[in-house]
Design brief:
Blueprint lengths: L6 H7 L15 H11 L11 E6 L2 H14 L11 H7 L5 H15 L5 E8 L7 H8 L3 H13 L2 E3 L9 H8 L6 E3 L3 E5 L23
Antiparallel strand pairs: 1-2, 2-4, 2-5, 3-5
Helix pairs in contact: 2-7
Length: 216
């Protein structure tokens, strides 16, 4: 179903959906393919189009990946504490982070039930490379992945950007047949229909704290 959301609404209400993922309703392959078709209209450095999207819907394979995703939380340095300034920003409204943490817990418990996973990948690894090379590589996959999430939102699907695959990226690559030495995973995105569609803009810090004119 195409909701035909206005562009401002689409951009301001594409939320990280955890609690409200519908775990009972399969997502049609054709709908996911439509989202990929739109994703690859995103910009890519020097038009190299090194992007790849691994989509997993098989229940047995989802169960394996869900276990790996949960195990990654125990990897040393997987989750560093937020600096105080980031905590202040995150708590821009009372209870915001409580909802985030309970949502993460819900996803942790139910990830294997989510009907589809999307793992955006890009050819080329960035370890040890300059910032220029890193920016060019990440800039060639992240816009496409976000376009996928916007396209999903317009079609009544919820997504959430996670990096739970990256602490155990080699293990995820082995489970999915991704050539680790040549291809880098960018994220792990659960996808499902949403329970309701009444998503609202998020509370953010004031524009004055992030906008800089003609210099910092």
């Amino acid at each position: 179903m195409n909701l035909g959301l206005a562009s401002d609404t689409l951009l301001s209400t594409t939320r990280a959906v955890r609690h409200r993922l519908d775990l009972t309703r399969p997502v049609p392959r054709a709908l996911l393919e439509e989202c990929v078709d739109l994703a690859v209209q995103a910009p890519t450095g020097r038009n190299r189009q090194r992007w790849h999207f691994v989509i997993v819907t098989d229940p047995a394979r989802r169960a394996v990946l869900a276990d790996l995703w949960r195990a990654s939380a125990g990897v040393p340095d997987a989750h560093q504490p937020l600096p105080a300034r980031d905590v202040r920003r995150a708590e821009v409204a009372p209870g915001v982070m409580d909802r985030v943490y309970t949502g993460v817990g819900h996803l942790h418990r139910h990830l294997h039930e989510v009907p589809a996973y999307v793992i955006p990948c890009v050819e080329g690894r960035t370890e040890g490379l300059s910032v220029t090379h890193q920016a060019g590589t990440w800039g060639s996959i992240l816009p496409a992945a976000w376009s996928f999430m916007l396209a999903a939102r317009e079609r009544g699907l919820g997504t959430v950007w996670t990096t739970g695959n990256l602490p155990l990226e080699r293990e995820f690559a082995e489970a999915l047949g991704i050539p680790y030495a040549e291809v880098m995973q960018a994220a792990f995105i659960p996808v499902a229909y949403t329970v309701g569609t009444d998503f609202r803009p998020a509370r953010r810090i004031p524009r004055e704290q992030v906008l800089h004119w003609d210099g910092w």
